[in-house]
Amino acid sequence: MRSDASIGVLLADLHFPGTRSLKEKRGPLRSLRDVVQRRFRASFSEVGGQDTWQTSRVLIVLAASSPRQADEQLAEIDRYLHGLEGDVRVVLRTVEGVESLWDIAS
Fold this sequence. Notes:
Layout: E1 6-15, H1 22-39, E2 43-48, E3 55-64, H2 67-82, E4 89-94
Antiparallel strand pairs: 1-3, 1-4, 2-3
């Protein structure tokens, strides 16, 4: 039986150069989360940098009906994130498979 379901995963390191506190970082991060969830229908979670006021690592995960559709949606999110340049600097790393997010060997 062939499955037509695919998962797209994007890990993004964000830098907020204009923030001076964790409270200031929350606004743009919350706005980004809302856009990703509503516009792209993807899950969004801050998975690193919670204790730093200028950086954050976010994980974006989406479900698609094919690998091609997942890649297209991730590329659209990538373009959106890079369009934020100015208030947010983005260093992106797309992930081939979920298992590469964790060190499975250890």
